[in-house]
Amino acid sequence: MFSRLRSDVQCILDRDPAARSRWEVLTCYPGLHAVLLHRLAHGCWHMGLKWLGRFVSHLARWMTGIEIHPAAKIGERVFFDHAMGVVVGETAEIGDGCTIYQGVTLGGTSLYKGAKRHPTLGKDVVIGAGAKVLGGFTVGDGAKVGSNAVVTKPVPAGATAVGNPARIIHAEAKNQEIKREEAASKMGFSAYGVTQNDDPVSQAMRGLIDNASSQEHQIALLWKAIEQLSTGQAKPNCVPSEAARQEHFEAARMNQLLD
Q: CB neighbours of 110 closer than 8 A, spacing ≥ 6?
């Protein structure tokens, strides 16, 4: 029990730069208090003491502002950061290492008793402030849900869900991100100046940057071919259209991001 408590306290110290000491975390962090009281309520629930479990849950809600149904399953090192107004439903499951901010709802869309009505969060999932995750689906390991997003469908591992209704944005290759940033800096525009990877509008903007970068590449190939022709050093197989066949502007894809 004490080793698990130490782990809970340490995960808060690791993730919250405002936490200065273990004593401060133990006495002043309602997210930790909510988790500890939930374990008591969860134990009562599984011993058949349903009313007592609900009453402990009710007291925890009154003390911390975090409402967790005693039947919900919560893993280790779960951090409710600030977390006022968080609601966790009966059949919800929260995996190890998750971080949940204030105003989050892990709710259900079905009224059938006994059914899996609430979401399952994998390991190391981050749910931003005000997000609503509604339904009996899974949010994969390492996924992120943006602030105020409304998620009603599964989120793959490592992906990001943003917007209302939420759009799923998959992780991009690292070398493509580096290439995009280099091209953006040449144009005097930062793709991440205001929004991050999780905004569909910035996704479309980054697509435009990619297209502009490929156009610069095509222009450079054309100039190279012209120089070779002017000096008489052109090779028969030196045709810039080969790259043009590989790089093209995907307007449909960007329109889909903004739909």
A: 117, 135, 136
